[in-house]
Amino acid sequence: MARLPALENLPTISQEVVTRFLPPCGPSTLLPRTTMHTTPRRCPTLSLPSRPALRTACLAATLWALAGYSAAGSLPAAAKAEVNTLLTRLQTSGCEFNRNGSWYTGAEAKAHLLKKLDYLDGKNAVQTTEQFIELGASSSSASGKAYQVRCAGAAAVDAGPWLKGELKALRSGAAAPAAK
After folding, report:
1. What is the CA radius of gyration of the chain?
2. Which of the ends of the chain has fewer CB neighbours closer than 10 A, N or C?
3. Which one, of 124, 135, 17, 120, lies nearest residue 70 by Cα?
């Protein structure tokens, strides 16, 4: 799914570009209005660029916009697939997920963590699954409290080490934990 670039990532238009195509047009350069003519007169110094110059400006604006667009979402596809598989293991494990003092199902945990992944990916903050676990899946960005995972009545453990263990098992080809 294509994503539009975040506005804060786009460069601002320089004053030089603005004044090149839109010269200053203050009250002294406006033509006087008559009582018979009710529409405002245009600035006499304003002239539109020629067709080739307009094409060049449009092309430059398009490339400028696409430069920010291509930079958004730089998490490699392999890492994104690995994170998705890891979160699916959490979802199907039958384990519960504690976030800010409330317990959630694996499916709710996966949905929440995928939102955090999209946010971090949009900020170009993660490049690997390990970075996602550290920055997004270990603790709440709102409260700073560590996330926890509790499986089959066992004691709750911090989510970061649990996810790292599952990632290690995933990479070694071990089966996912059985749903309880």
Report:
1. 27
2. N
3. 124
**pLDDT, tens digit, for every residue of 92-130?**
999 999 999 999 999 999 999 999 999 999 999 999 999
In whole numbers, what is the pLDDT of the chain averaged over residues? 78
- pTM summary value: 0.58
- Residues in a beta bridge with 148: 98, 158
Residue 59 · residue 144 · CB < 8 Å: no
Beta carbons of 166 and 174 less than 8 angstroms apart: no
Q: Are 49 and 70 in contact (CB under 8 A)?
A: no
Burial class (CB in 10 A: 0-12, 13-18, 19+), 175: exposed
What confidence score (pLDDT) does residue 28 get?
47
157-158/102-104 β-pairing: unpaired
